[in-house]
Write a structure and sequence with these properties.
By secondary structure, the chain is α/β, with parallel strands linked by helices. It is about 35% helix and about 15% strand. The longest helix has about 40 residues, at about 580-620.
Amino acid sequence: MASGRVAGITVCVTVAALGLTAAGFSAAQARVLATRRPTRAELSAAAAAGVAQRWERAAAAAIFPATVRYTSGLQTTEKATRLAIGRGRVCAVALDATLRPAARADHCAAGVRATYTDALRGTVYTAGVLAFPDAADAAAFYGAVTVSAYPATGLNALPVAGTAAALFGDKARQAAAAQVAGPYVVLAVAGYADGRPALNSAERRDAVFHPGDSLVDDIAGRIARPVTAGCGTSEWACSQGDLPVPPPTFSEIRSYEMAMLGQIGVPDAWTASQGSGVTVAVLDTGVDPDAPDLTGGVTTGPDYTRGADPAGYQPPHEHGTYIASIIAGHGSGADDESGVVGVAPRARVLSVRVILDDGEPGMAKYNSRARYAKAIGRGIYYAVAHGAKVINMSLGSEQPTGYLRTAIGHALRSGVVVVASAGNSGTSGGYAPYVYPASFSGVIAVAAATDSGTRAAFSEQNAGVVLAAPGVGVLGDGPGGEYLDAEGTSPSAAIVSGVAALIKSRYPKLSPALVEQALITSTTHRPHAGYSVNTGFGEVDAAAALAAASRLAGAPAARGLSPAARFASAPGPIQVTHRDMALVAGYAGAAGGGLLCTLAALALLVFIARQQPRRRAAVGVGGITGTGIPDTATPDAEGARPPDLYGWLLIAERYRMPRKTSRPRRALTTRGRGSPPRSG
């Protein structure tokens, strides 16, 4: 009996212990599962869903803005104004018969429209957004779209009573535009406000309806803009509401981050340079100087957005703090071995606030007041004046300004490297609008790359892109001790700014142009053709860039030809007057011949003159006849003629010579012009 009782107690205790253990283990597992952090795959899928559902989650005005800027054919900057947003969302209603079959085949989920007019109110535009389950369906539908038909087809016009678009109907569709943007296709049709029909293709004037292209570009950028999935807001359903997405412990953050830095050669570059002595100006939303990984390394400059937010409002400085930590975070904790370490951990940060964080109450005021139009340019001038060697601008706009261009030129002439993000409005269509300041020549425009070095889907692709850097899942500091795991071309630009700081620290005299050469000649994942609009010259490699900079710094500058030298030995004098010497010789010969003739004639004349008196005297000997003088004179003993007769004749001859009269011409004219006195 006793042994059985003991056995029973033992079994019960054992079962109870096992049950308690199982309960504890199960509870712990349940807690782990219920409170676990989202995986990267889950975050990526949620972000994709956020984009795909934007048409139904976002306010209509977020898809169809009130105004859209465009450049006219005369290069004037103007605004297209929204007249109304349509209420319907049925694809078959938004499209005409040419696209309805394709919409059904590719599972079009929604078709929403809005109508705009240009600055002159003479042309009107209906823009439409078609939503599809995924990018593949959208791309398949886009293949069926044509924009060359006349009259235009595809999207149905949306007339708006009581506005400039009241007469705009399907028969008045003069031009069309289209663009695929992730899981969306954006369409537009345009026509005259007076509703004139499109009848003759010879009357087609696509240039008049150019604002339609700008309208499509703007809407495509808005509807397909990537999002970052996170926790703590009503938009995202997460198991732990207040915890940040990145790993919660410093040690995990460092190991996670170092894996990314290792892919681009940063740890190897630290053996040569860590950025000491270089100030990087972060022109952004402001930097929290008390962020754990930035303490003691931040100088706060002016706030060029002052007055945009209401009085007393404290900006979060979220974006700027995140960017600054990627560039120059020095870590935190014991020996700075935890937290975020930037690409150039010994560089300093000069924070200049030139833009607002998303969600700040002053955003509308900032975007509409002229006083803030020069904020970024003023930030550049301030950074140059206060010793910055690198300027990072993880920001951009499709509208360049002359003031901003001039400020960038001042920075580059001052030897400051300027880096900017290429923009986050990339599409699968192969083109995205240019963004400034990134697209100014001389600025190093940075695209976002995936872990494999290819272009991230959101990264803009155009000829302004210089190179790429990691832009997906990049860790950085947030305000108030947070850590952010984000994506975009903003962190990509910050990484390249950090590499530029490493180069300027090691080779301070290297010009911005040579720093860019070092960066682009040392990239990895280089495109097959050497360059592409997706990732530029390839993905940055910090260690290789420093090696390239070393070669550039050690290479003597090409001397070229001395400014005082000539390209060839100087020839003789330049002939001004070009003479025909053969003709000259001919004339000279003729002149000589003429002179000889003249001399001969004169000689003959002298000869004749000397012979003339003798002949006349001989005639008088023996009597002169035919002169009216009687032949009654008798020669003297010697047979000479009487001297009086000879003398008269001589006098008569002399009378004819002009030198024997004081006014010969008058004397002659008394006898008739040109008639000499006759001997009588």
